[in-house]
Structure formats: structure tokens, C-alpha cells
Amino acid sequence: MIVLEPPLTRSGAIGSSNFDWGQPLAVGPRYARTSGMSRWHRPRSGTRRQDGRTSWHLWCGQLVSTGSLKAPDVLTADAIDDGLPACGTCEGRACGAGQDDWPGVGEVVFSPRRLTPPKHCPGSRREGFFAQIGTTAGRCLVCGAVESLRGMGGPYNPKWAMVQHPPGEGLVAGCPFHAWTSLTVRNGVVACHCTTEAKAS
């Protein structure tokens, strides 16, 4: 067990008597993760709530709680012995804050957001992001791939769009600020919303 930080927060129901803040935990496990996590994390602070659940706030910013629908159980360990890597952000922050000595764990990983092409083309399943070819096919304006068109969205939000597909070789360059998350189409050309707004002003 290691000494935990206090669960300080600047958000939430400050001053509300109805909010279940729980009981701060003074000590906790060195490592924790849910069964769905790909790496072990370091708990920064912990609370035990009135309903019996235990929550761990991790150094990398995530929160895991026992008894939740997504994580009915939280795995804890004093040492990593199952071959999974440790979260690099958690390791660096915990050791840098003096919570623990560097344990000499095996692999430490950190996955920053980079301009790595997405798994699915951002033009997939989006209305207006294609040039129609015939009746049931279109050319994706985002990546240049020719894919099938389908009706989708259901009766309350119908749309005609391209099926989900991997990015083609003509994928537009990712914006250094928004990657491919804010694409828009203007005059048949796809660009990031921030770029088109700058040109329009």
C-alpha cells in the first residue's frame, strides 16, 4: 500500500449536502486498472462512498470505480507481473510528486495524440461528404475512395451517406489543431473548420 494524495477538486457540487463525496482514503494500492484497460495505472487519490463503492482517481486523469456498469471490479496490485505495461503518465507524475520511488517496472508506455490517420475515414457516414457516382456509389471528398452509398440515420434523422470505410490514399492532411475532427465541405472542397473560417473572415 502507498500513501495517497487528498482527493482535492475544483469541480462538482461544492457545498452541496446532497452530493455523496464519500470518505477520503489515506492509503491505497500501487497499481490499479479495469479489466478493459490495456495498461496499469497509478492511483493518485481514493474515496469510499456511502453506497460501498471505491473510486480511484488516477494520476493520468482517469477515474475508475468499483461497482460501475463499465467496470464492476477494479484490479489492484502492488507489483506488475502479468506482462502488461504501465502508464507512462501515471509513473512519471507519481514518482515526480514523491508518492513512490521509481519501481523499475518493465515497459512504460504513453500514447500522445498525434496526426496519425484515423482507422475509419472521417467522411464515412456523413451527409454531403461525397460526390455521387451513379445511383449507389460515390467518391469520398475526404480521402478519394469510391464506396457505396446507403440510407442511414433512422426515420427521425434520415440521411444519404457513404458507408464506413478505411481512409483512401488521398486522405486530406490533418489539421495541426483539430486533426480530422472538425472537417467541413465548402464548394466541394474539404478542409478543417478553422481553416475555412479564417479564409471567410
What this model shows, in words?
It contains two helices and 16 strands. It is mostly beta strands and 201 residues long. 8% of the residues lie in helices and 29% in strands. The longest helix has 9 residues. It folds into two domains: 108 residues, no CATH class; 71 residues, no CATH class.
What key attributes describe this structure?
201 residues; mainly beta; 2 domains; four-stranded antiparallel sheet; 2 helices; 8% helix; elongated
Q: What's the total number of strands?
A: 16
> Which parts are unreliable, with pLDDT below 50 for 5 consecutive residues or more?
none
Provide the helix percentage.
Answer: under 10%
Question: Structural class per helix/strand content?
Answer: mainly beta
User: Would you tell me the overall average pLDDT?
Assistant: 85
Amino- and carboxy-terminal Cα gap = 57 Å
Number of helical regions: 2
**Largest sheet at a glance?**
4 strands, antiparallel
Task: Round the Cα radius of gyration to an integer and report it.
Answer: 23 Å
In total, the number of domains comes to 2
SSE arrangement, N to C: EEEEEEEEEHEEEEEEEH
Strand content: 25-35%
Overall 3D shape: elongated
Q: What strand order characterises the main sheet?
A: 2-5-6-7
